[in-house]
Amino acid sequence: MLNRLLKLFNPTKTLSKMPTPKIIPASEHGLRRSQFSPNAIKVIEKLQEAGFSAFLVGGGVRDLLLGGQPKDFDVATNATPEETKNLFRNSMIIGRRFRIVHVRFGREIIEVTTFRAHHDQSLDPKDAAQSQTGMLLRDNVYGDIESDAARRDFSINALYYDPSTGNLFDYTNGLKDLKRRVLQMIGDPEARYKEDPVRMLRAVRFSAKLGFALTENTAEPIKRLAPLMSHVSSARLFEEVLKLMMSGSATSTLQLLREYGLFGALFPGTEQCLQLGDEKQLQFINQAALNTDKRIRQNKKVTPAFIYAAFLWLPLQAAIRKLVHDDKMSVADAVRHAEHGVISQQLTCTAIPKRFLIPMREIWALQLRLPRREGRKAFLLLEHPRFRAAYDFLLLREQSGEHLDGLGLWWTQFQDASEEQREAMVQQLGKPQQRRRKSRRRSNSNPPPPAST
Ligand code: ATP
Ligand code: MG
Fold first, then answer.
1. In this predicted model, which residue has the larger pLDDT, 393 or 17?
2. Mutation to probe ligand 1, out of 140, 157, 204, 210 (largest number of atoms < 8 A from CB)
3. What is the reported pTM?
4. Domains of the chain, each with CATH number or no CATH
5. Ligand 1, atom 15: nearest CA belongs to which residue?
């Protein structure tokens, strides 16, 4: 009852404009201009000199207030994309659904976004378009800073910092939410998720990355609205998957995605396998996320091809098993059919650009080749451009409980060995074992053992 009353009087329920900001001076919020990217400050100063207003906003401000290191810096301004572009030689307008300007300084890109307004303020379909479910198909209606604050996603992402005065402008109680470590959707959460279902993924991503809880009304609609994700373009979802999995918090992100019913919207085949409740399969996926987080902590390269190879491994194995056992298909045919089926299903949800699709398939194909080491094969495999990823994948399978007869250890030692030692290792696989291996080889031509065995 109390909750319902509170909801009725929730000041963030339907805000299309937020009139009076709290203005917090530097002495209170503690941010210093020197903490921001000098290039972002340059962009702001140039916009301000040209008579526009401009602020730092979003993750850059949020992460610095939390004592973290921002990944990038976003600028918000009342200059239109064209006006911004005219000010900076090193800039270009990008996006159609949501037009912004990228200002490039060497490897750093400063994203400059024009203040947006809610769509009731414009009717021109060139700038504003909405689908039947309320999704924003085009979001290029410009407004002022108040309307801009109202259209941002979470209150902690809507804090505006003016480097020329040091003031922080807070229209949405963002600073309070930052202190109580919660994610509060601005406005009516359900309507905001319908406008852009990706906001559900963002809720999970920030919750995992920052260790913030979702407020009750921000969390409540997610499970219900998760199917709306199917309206989002597969290309955009691919980008979101990368952000989710490569943020260094893939393990907790994965858990939250599943809790909120969002994982199935991104990887339906994988979720279907996990639903069967087999602990080993869950362990495999978790281990893939743990390894990804570890690599990111160690500043090692993480490739989307590996993440996709891991996530789709479960449905791939299930499909191969079914084709071989139920449909009596030959193993080679089953592998081909299963790959095609699993990839086609995945492409209906998220894109997989070719530059990742091909290496993903190579990682899979190498799982069948890694046990075959006799003669020159081991030496050739070592030269394969995808060997390292395939070897890591093999270790992942073993780490999550698959028994592969010490194959991972063999390959670890083979890589560390001198040329003579390598020859000896291959020799040792030699004749007596060769016979045993022959029969094993026959079983190796079976589908790679499922992660659950
Ligand atoms: P990070 O860059 O660390 O991932 P961020 O909050 O800066 O986090 P961006 O994607 O860079 O995220 O977006 C910048 C800002 O733009 C956000 O902080 C938010 O205010 C706003 N924003 C981004 N995406 C959306 C969205 N889908 N709906 C509403 N506002 C958004
Ligand atoms: Mg950002």
1. 393
2. 157
3. 0.90
4. 1-180 (3.30.460.10), 232-365 (1.10.3090.10), 370-433 (no CATH)
5. 58
